[in-house]
Amino acid sequence: MPLSSKxxxxxxxxxxxxxxxxxxxxxIFKEVLERPIKRVPTLTGKTVVNLFYESSTRTRISxxxxxxxxxxxxxxxxxxxxxxxxxxxxxDTARNIEAMKIDIVVIRHSAPGxxxxxxxxxxxxxxxxxDGAHEHPTQALLDMYSLREKFGKLxxxxxxxxxxxxxxxxxxxxxxxxxxxxxxxxxxxxxxxIPRELDKLGVKIFYNLDEAIKHKNVIMALRIQLxxxxxxxxxxxxxxxxxxxxxxxxxxxxKKDVVIMHPGPINRxxxxxxxxADSKYSIILxxxxxxxAIRMAILYLLSGxxxxxxx
Length: 311
Description:
Layout: H1 16-33, E1 47-52, H2 58-69, E2 73-78, H3 90-98, E3 104-109, H4 114-121, E4 125-131, H5 137-151, E5 158-162, H6 169-180, E6 184-188, E7 204-206, H7 209-212, E8 218-221, H8 237-244, E9 259-261, H9 274-277, H10 284-302
Parallel strand pairs: 1-2, 1-3, 3-4, 5-6, 5-8, 6-7, 8-9
C-alpha cells in the first residue's frame, strides 16, 4: 500500500492511517537492522540524491545509511563544493541532477518551501530533510516511533516540548504529527520563542517550566537555534538554563518514569544537564537508531516499487 503522495514535504495533512503505515513498514526494516547482514535488495536500481544545503550530521548519515541498507545508488551533494558556490540556482542544480536519472531527492535547505518548490519542477519524489524553520517530517516520525516503541502506544500520552519553538522545524512537524496521533501536546519556553496563535494548532502553552512538566509522560528539549535568530530573544544562555534547562532537580516534579528526548545536537548545560542526557530517563540514542528504520520505510514507500515488501 503506497502513501497518498509521491512526496514527503511535511506532516501537515498526513493522516493517522499513513503515519501508522510508515511505522509498520519501519518495524519490518528494524528487524532487518538487527541481522548480521543489514542490507536488502529492495531499492536495487533506484538512485537517490542527498541535496544538502545546510550542515548536518545525524540526518545526513541516517539517510545515507538507510539508502545503503536498501541497496540504492547514492549521489551525495554538498553546497560548499558544488556549482552553487559559483552562483548556480537551486532550480538549475536540481534539474541538472535529475537529468542524470534520479528517482528520489532528499533535500535540506535553509529556505522554507524549498522541497515544495522542487516537487513542482521535478518528476522525482522529494523528501524534506528540513527546510528552514518550517518542517522536518522524518525527525518527527522517528520521535513518535521511538515513543510508540517505549510506551506501546501514542494516543493519550502527554508530551511537553521545551525551548525555541519559533525557529524549530522539529517542533512544528511534531505538533502536526503528534496531535494527529492523539497525543496531548504542550510547549514551554520564553514568550519571545513561542509563536503567536500556536494554540490554534491544538497545543497548550506554558511559560513556567516547573508548572509545565507536571503530569507529563515525555519532555522533549529543543536546541536553541541562535543561527536563525535575527536578534537576541533572551538575555543569555545562562539565564535560559536557569529558567528552562532540564535538570535533575526539576524532574522531581515530573512523573517518575518520565522520558527525555532531544533531536540533537545537544547543548549540554543549556537545554539539559549531561546527567539527564545520559540518564535512564533518556531515549536520545534510541531516537538516532530508529531514524534509520524510519527513513528506510519512507524511501521504500515513495520509491514506486510495486512488488510486495521482500526483505
